[in-house]
Amino acid sequence: MNKTNLSAWLAALCAALLVILLVRQSQQMTQLDSLRQQHEAFAATTTQRQQEAHDAVTALAAHSATFGTNLEARLAQSEQQAKESLATFGTHLEGRLAQSEQQAKEKLNETMNMVQQSTAVMHRAIGKVIPVELPESLTNKLVALEARIADSHSWPKDLAEADALLADLRALVKQIPAWAEEDYLPRLSKLRWAVQSLQVIQANGTVQGVALDDAADAYANLLSIQPDGGSTNIAAVLVSRQQDTTARFAKFRREAAINDAKEQLGLAVMTGGLVAWQGLSEWTNSPSGDQQAVDLRRQLHARLLEDDTSKFIASVDVGLAQAAKEPSRIVRQISFGKLLDNVVSQRQILLESPDVNASLSRSLTDLAARIEKMVESDNSAQMADQEKKSLKYQGWALSQIRKFNETMNSTEGTRVPTGVYDSNDYPGIKNAMSTYLVPISVGFLDPAVSRLYYEAFDRGWKKLENQKDLQTEVAKQEALTQKQKP
């Protein structure tokens, strides 16, 4: 929609609203004229009746005069009754007239108020700014609330009065027309803030413990949203209350931390010692240096180290038992080494702490010595076992070498006339080397046994110098055969 269409639409809307307003004003003025006409007709009727009554009295008096003196008493009585009736009728008529006038005035005021409101709405719709005025009754209530807020002696004395004051303000706000709220918003904002502040002040006047922190936050929040022109007296009270509750909450937190620490120290086994120790850090790290907090924190630290060390020693004992059952020597030695390193590190931590009991470091020293003894014992047992296996391996290797030599001796015993070995014996030499010498792992042999091995191998190898294929077979088996180990 372009600007031209929008302007035309707005103009049409304003014209329609103006026509509606004019029609309504015309209807209201018609009603007002009708009420005025009724009032004038009633007044004319009253005057006519009064004149008729006066004429009747006059006629009655003239008629009475023609009678004789014998009728004077009756005439006087009739005249008296007529006067009394006329007086009663006049009084009743004046009351009805006053009532009608009051109703007409009220109806007129109501109609004029509606006209003024409609006019204000129309003026706002077409952009004309006019001052907004509330009814006198609402204005008086608003002024009374502002006066009560300004006088500190009239502030609520308890929470019930504060709640009642807030209820009065809400009731007053509901009576203010929606079209007037914008103009009265600054005054209403100051009133709302002041009444809410007084309610918070009364609600948190006797709080204790953890609730002090919430109260301090409530005071701070109200101070942060104080409107321009808000009550400085109430703001001063909020500042004072905030400072007081903050200080009281800090004191409460310190006392709670102290009590928690004492409670943990009184237990045979602490359940929350670390939390209590951490909770005291705020006062031990402060420039003032709270000595009670410092002493309690040291005691907690010592107990924590004692408990941790006891648990650590128990876990190390379990680890040692498991490591001792490990069949692999390498894994067993690695496990012992790790446990020993952990014990040494834990012992170093204890030595660097001034709060620890000297008996704890001695316990770790004894534990480290026990682990070292287990490692030494395991090494000794391993060395003895290896020595035993080595001796057995040397005997086995010697028996293999002896069997090879016996085979060679039996082979060398058969000669041909020319002095050359029978070619049919070469495969036997190759088989003997493969069977007796190739399975031996030379690296596990003692020097003397190793020397005998090389002499035997060299003896057979030389016998096969002219048999390269057989030498190749021996070399191949030497490379591929899995060696026997201790």
- Computed structural class: mainly alpha
Number of strands: 0
Q: What percent of residues are in strands?
A: under 5%
Q: State the shape.
A: elongated
Average of per-residue pLDDT values: 79
Give the tally of structural domains: 4
Q: How would you classify the quaternary structure?
A: single chain
H/I helix tally: 15
Kindly provide the radius of gyration, computed on alpha-carbon positions and rounded to a whole number of angstroms. 61 Å
Main sheet makeup? none
- Order of H and E elements: HHHHHHHHHHHHHHH
The low-pLDDT segments are: 126-130, 416-421
Assign a percent range to the helix content.
over 70%
The N- to C-terminal Cα distance equals: 102 Å
State the gist of this model.
With 486 residues, the protein is mainly alpha-helical. 80% of the residues lie in helices and 0% in strands.
Structure description:
This protein has 4 domains: 16-125; 136-246, no CATH class; 318-385; 387-480. The longest helix is centred in the first third of the chain and has 64 residues, at 3-66. The chain has 15 helices and no strands. Mean pLDDT is 79; it is low at 126-130 and 416-421. With 486 residues, the chain is mainly α. The two termini are 102 Å apart. Helix 7 crosses helix 10 (291-324), helix 10 packs antiparallel against helix 11 (329-352) and helix 10 packs parallel to helix 12.
Walk me through the topology:
Elements: H1 3-66, H2 72-125, H3 136-150, H4 159-175, H5 178-203, H6 211-224, H7 232-265, H8 273-279, H9 281-284, H10 291-324, H11 329-352, H12 358-412, H13 426-437, H14 447-463, H15 468-480
